[in-house]
Write a structure and sequence with these properties.
The protein is of the alpha/beta class and 288 residues long. It is 41% helix and 14% strand. It folds into two domains: 87 residues, 3-Layer(aba) Sandwich (Rossmann fold); 119 residues, NAD(P)-binding Rossmann-like Domain (Rossmann fold, 3-Layer(aba) Sandwich), CATH 3.40.50. It has ten helices and nine strands. The chain is globular and about 55 Å long. The structure holds 5,10-Methenyltetrahydrofolate. 5,10-Methenyltetrahydrofolate binds next to helix 2, strand 4, helix 6 and helix 10. One of its GO terms (molecular function) is methylenetetrahydrofolate dehydrogenase (NADP+) activity.
Length: 288
């Protein structure tokens, strides 16, 4: 028998558009009621071309949604202490409702220490330990944006998670680790794989829901995807290629995210939505 079955695509671009339309309406409503426009501050350290592009995309999306964005550009040579001071001052600036420190920063900087200088109520990118803890325990707080976007996508396509085997490839602080916690909170049976995992293929073959989040082009082989699985490719690599061998994976999966047009746009939609959530709490228009 020939393999002619093709997975349904999970259209993150379309879902992100819907979220951004609603977010844009809420931003306008806040401006009308409070006389203040929600504002996201983006901190960019150095000139890494990929980071410059991502930050530009985020700011363009803010402009379109009626959210102010403030860009703080810092030289690559900045120290941890200087970066922390910048983030503390943004945390205290009443005109700023959300703060995003673009990852990665240079290796001479303690990125964790920098993230922790972001006030939790402004951590719309969900990178602080406080946000991670709240998110893991199902308490109010901001989800890390890509993990939050992945869960929205799974829900939009009615993916049942209870008792299912979810395999997360990658354990980064703002992607792999938190998405595993969100899946666990929804009663999936979660396995984390990473660079020290001895048999990645064996784990992938068991996955009902696979989340690839390492940033290694086509690390996950399509032939290892379990027939009928849901495949979320959150890998961002140069040249818009994901972590999953898409062409083969789509002949086996039931649902799969494309790259581009899958997880990427959802990340930005959640960031902007959480910025509006933060503004509305800070301006006294909603409970926390
Ligand atoms: N503190 C922090 N938070 C982040 O959320 C964060 C970060 N640092 N550092 C870098 C990664 C990467 N990231 C992406 C966002 C959108 C797309 C996206 O929209 N991509 C489009 C394609 C874009 C293109 O055409 O180049 C898509 O997949 O359709 C991709 C990647 C957020 N990140």
């Amino acid at each position: 028998m020939s393999q002619t079955q093709t997975a349904r695509l999970m259209d993150g671009a379309a879902l992100a558009r819907r979220i951004l339309e609603e977010t844009s309406g809420r931003a306008a409503e806040i401006a009308r009621r409070a006389g203040v426009t929600p504002c996201l501050a983006t901190v960019l350290v150095g000139e890494d071309p990929a980071s410059v592009t991502y930050v530009r995309m985020k700011r363009a999306r803010c402009a379109k949604a009626g959210i102010d964005s403030r860009l703080v550009r810092l030289p690559a040579t900045i120290t941890t202490a200087e970066l922390v001071a910048t983030l503390r001052s943004l945390s205290q600036d009443a005109a700023v409702h959300g703060i995003l420190l673009q990852h990665p920063v240079g290796s001479h900087i303690d990125e964790r220490e920098a993230f922790e200088a972001i006030a939790p109520e402004k951590d719309v990118d969900g990178v602080t330990m406080s946000s991670f803890g709240s998110m893991s325990f199902g308490r109010p707080g901001f989800a890390s944006c890509t993990p939050g976007g992945i869960m929205r996508l799974l829900d939009a396509y009615d993916v049942d998670l209870v008792g299912r085997r979810a395999v997360v490839v990658g354990r980064s602080a703002i992607l792999g680790k938190p998405v595993g916690m969100l899946l666990l909170a929804r009663d999936a049976t979660v396995t984390y794989c990473h660079s020290r995992t001895t048999d990645l293929a064996a784990a992938v073959r068991e996955a009902d829901v696979l989340v690839a989040a390492v940033g290694r082009p086509r690390l996950v082989r399509g032939e290892d995807v379990k027939p009928g699985a849901v495949v979320i490719d959150a890998g961002y690599n140069q040249g818009n290629v994901g972590d999953v061998d898409f062409d083969t994976a789509r002949t086996r999966a039931r649902l799969i995210t494309p790259v581009p047009g899958g997880v990427g746009p959802m990340t930005i939609a959640v960031l902007l939505e959480q910025t509006v959530d933060a503004a509305s709490v800070q301006l006294g228009l909603a409970g926390p």
